[in-house]
Write a structure and sequence with these properties.
Two copies of one chain form a homodimer. With 534 residues, chain A is an alpha/beta fold. Helix content of chain A is 37%, strand content 17%. Chain A contains 16 helices and 23 strands. In chain A, helix 9 (283-295) packs parallel to helix 10.
Chain lengths: 534, 534
């Protein structure tokens, strides 16, 4: 189906002519058709008004209805996979296999949230039945559960055109919670977003969801995005992107007359700590694992390991030699956008003035327009600690080796870390027990701590935490990946003394939803008996 | 034991001489001894440093150890009840029975959190075991649970010198979570706070908790409080008080280089909606119920019903007459502080220029120094909607009747409401079903919705929600009362690929804590079998 380059505003398409944007083909540097018209201020406001009008209706749908809708969207995306992958490939230069996998992951996320809300226990239903005979005072009947916050503004990320974008994890978890969503599409992949939004529009109609359940707006973040966050009817924000952009949204959300929750997933260097014994096993395989992790997706993952702390020992030279060899011989890595390519160029040039560049891939005349040469930097821990810029993220295929003479200096480096999405320890299992202090330190710094794994690859499951202390995210109490992500968009509401038939289904005596509930502090699926209710 | 008027800084008492503060006896207006020396900037910073040093040790204690500590504190407070009540009575002029009840409630809160963390399932342990044979990619072993945020700054409230103060719900939930606490004592009841802090200091020593687990600082909020919120090692804030004060803390927390969670419970008018049929039953009893609720604690409850929406009908006149009678004949109500008494005076004078004052208690020469005459205001809904000031809280024994000609105008008034802690509907049960729109509207505005009850009286239990949309609190996703309050101070941490013996007890295969865990998405207390682990 032809792309028309217009925002999705409720059930309609944008009509007014805002400034035009073009996606750029990162391989050629050429603009792609069609042109995308930025949403005007009036269109942005209208999308939010439609979302606000949909909010109470969506809040009245039950988990099974919303699950059906999410699965319909997943089926639609799966059906659109060939078209999606073809367009995303043009817009992002990501490999076809990766884009197919990412589409599957996006469908999987939607289906996981569908299962969660269909089962229903996630609402954290709590019932403290009345105790009319209690002394000195009777206890009233109190029942509470999680309910949706209202319209959520979602910002698509550049580096995951599907899984963290128009129908990505933020959208899936907000819709699952019962919140309408207004997406600010990322300007790097507007066509991919248009195909996704078309699927959503179709599912909204097919599943009888209210108009305004979903809108998708094109435009610059500074205009459309800021207007969204400031709109009084937006009740929460979810963003994946840069520290600079995320902090600006946090500040805007906090400065509103009514401050609103703003979950921004921003940045990090995902430190890796190599325990001394690691080199004794297979230093070549270790080098390959690290190399594959920091170049995965051309090093454009938010979980890319950007700092490798190590203590030289037997086998270390072989590890370093293999790492240098892999970097030196690597092909040019395509990057997502001209801006990312430019930032990689300037940041890595700056880093070369602060640390030794121990390996660099060759320059190639036939490299894509937006691309990067892999680079490996190396620095001593003293210098690392003296120059805070060395701890900053460089988006792209590069990492920094930090040589630590001993455990104490590694602890010092861990202590100085900012908040991170992940922190990794690699080493023999028997050595881990001697590093309790390191584990405790990293636990305080990161949302996910790995042992003998690589941080890239974020499993979408119940136990995942893709969050962490600032500046990795705005609020370490939440995650943007996994089923816990739904809790960003809900709040508990307590019903006191309500007649059974006026309560939400989840809180009724008979437990018609069959969910797990906390009754008088005890988890149970059992109904509440009339004699308990009195 | 004699009060010495010094801050508690870890295991020591303040030594330096900051500005001196005195509590005021609200009955006489006279200052009470001793003088309280404000913590200096250095003392404040030292208390936070001690808390930060204690944080990793406290994070390593298990739920049973912390439960023992909380129970020890509760026992100590119970033992100190005569001394506490005597001093609190001098500082607050609250009735002895109320202060005894509040002490019991404070002990009850500590014990409820003790039970919660002793049982242990609150940590939301989640385990997604490894799937090494999964295609196309294996799944690593992922396990996550809630872990403490670190040092929490707690601000005591003026109106609950025990239950929302030095060892109140915020302190109890933060300590239960495993976070050290630094309290900024409220200047209205420094002696009560000193007795409470002495109990805590004793329990810390007796239970071998680390120094810095608890400190209590005296001083003005603008100095000590702001310094606390800005200190880089403070990781969360809990506050109960005015909108002005709470918003200032929210802004300070959001403006930090590292923004931190800031839960402020601020204000509200707790609207009450009377369905037309209500007057047919017992209008006199209804008037007495409403009167008792808005004058409870001299109208100084954050859940005081400050707006009563009603539609005149049969029996309404008897209701109004009885309400006027109760207000007119009421004794002077003592207030907590000269500042609260002054604000009540000026705010109610202003209100008398905007609404009809339909009843007022007599002025009395023998009234306490800080006291208030009960007042009843009355206004039509049109005027109410036209003057936003009429929807503002007045702290003290007064409420505003808003006359609505019909259901539609009541809906209009409900739509215009700001966020609230509570919203109440009173009426015949059979009439409630015809008011779905009102219920849905109030659900979107408040944290707790009551039917045929009064909002004052906040039960400390599992299902309670004492929170709500801004401006009632800073973040509707949390509550400051009830066991859910613990989630303000924790964040999920995920362990990937960790050897069983290096995991926190709650996440180990054998489930030695016997807690409920989400294993592969299913709630269970069962251990994970080796074959599942592979």
């Amino acid at each position: 189906m032809e792309l028309i380059g217009r925002s999705f505003i409720g059930n309609a398409r944008g009509q007014e002519g805002g400034p035009l944007l073009h996606a750029i083909n990162p391989l050629t540097g050429e603009p792609l058709s069609p042109a995308y018209a930025a949403a005007t201020a009036a269109e942005t406001a209208h999308a939010v008004e439609l979302a606000a009008a949909a909010a109470p209706q969506l809040a009245q749908t039950n988990g099974k209805q919303r699950a059906h809708f999410l699965r319909h969207v997943a089926d639609g995306l799966q059906e659109a996979m060939p078209e999606l992958v073809a367009r995303a490939q043009l817009e992002t230069a990501l490999p076809v296999a990766r884009l197919q996998g990412e589409t599957a992951r996006t469908c999987g996320q939607l289906r996981l949230f569908a299962s969660l809300i269909e089962e229903g226990s996630w609402v954290d239903a709590r019932i403290d039945p009345a105790l009319p005979d209690r002394h000195p005072l009777p206890r009233p009947d109190l029942r509470s559960m999680m309910r949706p916050l209202g319209p959520v503004a979602v910002f698509g990320a550049s580096n995951f055109p599907l899984a963290f974008s128009a129908a990505g994890g933020d959208t899936a978890s907000a819709l699952a919670a019962g919140c309408p969503v207004v997406v600010k599409a990322h300007s790097a992949h507007p066509g991919t977003s248009e195909i996704v939004a078309r699927v959503l529009a179709h599912s909204i109609a097919a599943c009888n969801m209210p108009e305004g359940t979903y809108s998708l707006l094109y435009g610059a973040g500074a205009q459309v995005g800021t207007a969204l966050v400031r709109h009084p009817k937006i009740q929460a924000v979810a963003f994946t992107g840069s520290l600079h952009g995320g902090r600006a949204l946090m500040d805007a959300a906090a400065a509103r007359p009514q401050p609103i929750p703003c979950f921004t997933e921003m940045s990090g260097v995902n430190p890796v700590f190599l325990l001394p014994g690691i080199f004794e096993h297979d230093p070549v395989q270790l080098a390959e694992g690290i190399y594959n992790s920091f170049t995965l997706g051309s090093g454009q993952f938010c979980t890319k390991p950007g700092l490798i702390f190590f203590t030289p020992g037997a086998g270390c030279e072989r590890f370093l030699a293999r790492l240098r060899e892999l970097v030196s011989s690597s092909q040019p890595w395509p990057l997502l956008t001209p801006a990312i390519a430019g930032a990689y160029q300037s940041c890595s040039q700056l880093r070369a003035t602060q640390a030794e560049r121990s390996a660099q891939a060759e320059a190639r005349d036939d490299a894509p327009a937006c691309s990067a040469r892999a680079q490996l930097f190396h620095v001593g821990v003293k210098q690392y600690l003296a120059e805070p810029q060395l701890a900053e993220e460089i988006f792209g295929p590069t990492t920094l080796l930090v040589e630590c003479p001993n455990d104490a200096s590694m602890i010092e480096a861990a202590t100085a870390l900012h908040g991170q999405l992940t922190a990794t320890i690699l080493g023999p299992a028997q050595e881990l027990a001697a590093h309790q202090q390191l584990i405790a330190l990293l636990e305080a710094k990161a949302g996910r701590i790995l042992f003998n794994g690589f941080p890239t690859g974020v499993e979408v499951c119940h136990a995942m935490v893709h969050g962490g202390p600032y500046p990795s995210t705005s609020d370490a109490r939440f995650t943007s990946v996994g089923t816990r992500a739904i809790y960003r968009f809900v709040r508990p509401v307590c019903f006191q003394g309500f007649p059974d038939e006026q309560l939400p289904e989840e809180l009724r005596n008979g437990n018609p939803c069959g969910i797990l509930r906390l009754v008088d502090g005890v988890s149970t699926r059992e109904a509440i008996l009339p004699k308990t209710v009195r």
